[in-house]
Amino acid sequence: MKQSIFARVAQLAKANINALLDSAEDPQKMLDQMVRDYSANIREAEAAVAQTIGNVRMAEEDYRRAVNDANTWGNKAIAASRKADEFRAAGNGVDADKFDALAKLALQRQMTAESMAKGQEPGLAAQNEIVDKLKGGLDQMKGKLHELTAKRNELVARSRTAAAQSQVHDALKSLDAGDPTSAIGRYEERIRRQEATVRGQQELASSSLDAQFASLEDLGEQTEVEARLAALKSIDRKAIDD
Fold first, then answer.
1. 35 neighbors 149 (Cβ within 8 angstroms)
2. What is the spatial distance between Cα 230 and Cα 64, in angstroms, rounded to a whole number?
3. Half-sphere exposure (CA, 13 Å, Cβ side) for 89?
4. Which residue spans traverse the membrane (predicted)?
């Protein structure tokens, strides 16, 4: 179980986020899913690592208890041996033998506790090494989660900015299509054409009037010619009559 947890932590910690994003069809959705997956994996790993640490701490307590028991039974053996020596010195062999037996029993218990403690030492060292690696893996996972979250937030911000820019661009295109100044320009062109038509009509009317005046001038000239011709004829007739 410990190896499985460590393998998962190591695998997730080594994940190449940039490569995953490059191959994703929708990076934002993938980042959201990765953040959820990483968060779930971290919670699961934390629970498993916490359980592992608890088991190691219990084993350490058992080891310390065995060491303390060994020391305690050693002290009891010393005390019983000294008491036996006192009774033997006083000539009380029965009690001396009794306390020597107690000293031997204490020494046996001491040896058992020492053996237990000695047998636990290698396992404790290995378990503590695993715990350190698991803690390091969890720290790496949390670092990756922080990196993922930062990238996700950056991507969302960039996406929103791009969407806003697209909306502004579309609005500007719509504004160009319905630009009131362009309508005014078309209306101005229409007025200019109307004004040009009026000027043409005026010019045409003016040309027609000049032609009429020219006709009148020609008529007056003809009338003058006729009058002078009549006057000449009148003078000629008078001269003939005279």
1. yes
2. 163
3. 6
4. none
**Number of Cβ within a 10 Å radius of residue 165:** 10
Nearest by Cα to 78 from 113, 104, 97, 98 = 104
User: Token pair for residue 149?
Assistant: 């979250």
12 with 141: CB under 8 angstroms?
yes
- H-assigned helices in the chain: 2-13, 17-23, 27-89, 93-177, 180-241
- For residues 205 and 178, give the distance between their C-alpha atoms in angstroms, rounded to a whole number: 41
Instruction: Measure the CA–CA gap between 148 and 139, rounded to whole angstroms.
Output: 14
DSSP 14: T
Tokens, residue 5: 């947890």
